[in-house]
Amino acid sequence: MDKEDILFGTKEWAPHNFNFMKGCSNDCTYCYAKEMAIRFKRKTADSWKNEEAVSLEGKSFGKRNGRIMIPSSHDITPGNIDLAMDVISRLLKSGNELLVVTKPNLACIERLVDELLQYRAKIQFRFTIGSSSTTTLKLWEPGASGFPERLDALKYAYGKGYETTISAEPLLDEKLDDLYEKVSPFVTGSIWVGKMNFPDRRVKMNATSGIVPNHVKALIAAQCDEKIIAIWEKYKNNPKVEWKESIKKVLAKHVEI
Ligand code: SF4
After folding, report:
1. Tell me, what's the pLDDT at 8?
2. Is the Cβ–Cβ distance between 130 and 175 less than 8 Å?
3. What's the CA gap between 45 and 207, in Å, rounded?
4. Whose CA is nearest to atom 8 of ligand 1?
5. For residue 156, how far is its CA from the centre of ligand 1 (angstroms)?
6. Which residues does ligand 1 sit against, CB inside 6 Å?
7. For residue 21, what pLDDT band results from cuts at 50, 70 and 90?
8. pLDDT for res 58
9. Which helix (H) or strand (E) holds 162?
10. Where are the domains of the chain?
11. Is the pLDDT confidence value at 1 over 80?
């Protein structure tokens, strides 16, 4: 695989994205959007978790050529679900296809699923679940839902006939087998697997701390090239599993595909 062929970030999933908030109450310690907001002084490490609606004045809700990922730099949460319903409905009414990416809050997903049923064919859900352990999820994503709630949300969308996919990016531990076993029966499409990018730098910036906590060191060790290749070897022939760019870069260094 040639490094030049690898697509990066959200462009791997959709040519467009749409955001309607600044800040995110999930407050993930590895968050790229938080790191950028702090760097460019739009938010602080403390204020990132305060969600503020952005002005939608002049923003087009028209039909785009290709799928729209929504959101890509915040999440859909109980604090913004009314606005999320409005924005998503407007995009769907224009004939767009949406990739809804979220660490699912069950009440929000029930509302999206029930109220958008007529647009079901135009929506794909991508639920971010990097571990089957709530303890692990809470270490990295303190404001987001735990594993049982994410699984219930997945089951709910699946049960109502929506297309469901998973983002295990970033993978938060070495237990992909356990996660795969629990979520795969309710996934109609792909399970995307990816590493965490720059965990030590990002956690330090996002927590304004010079200390790298032990769980960050443990994850860095768990995501060494050797262990990533072992995961890939195990799932490489599984048609449900897709590899994000962070893993393709490891493979490009070591493996002839
Ligand atoms: S859910 Fe996404 S946008 Fe929100 S804090 Fe976590 S990584 Fe950042």
Report:
1. 53
2. no
3. 6
4. 31
5. 22
6. 24, 26-28, 31, 33-34, 73-75, 103, 141
7. very high
8. 93
9. none
10. 3-254
11. no
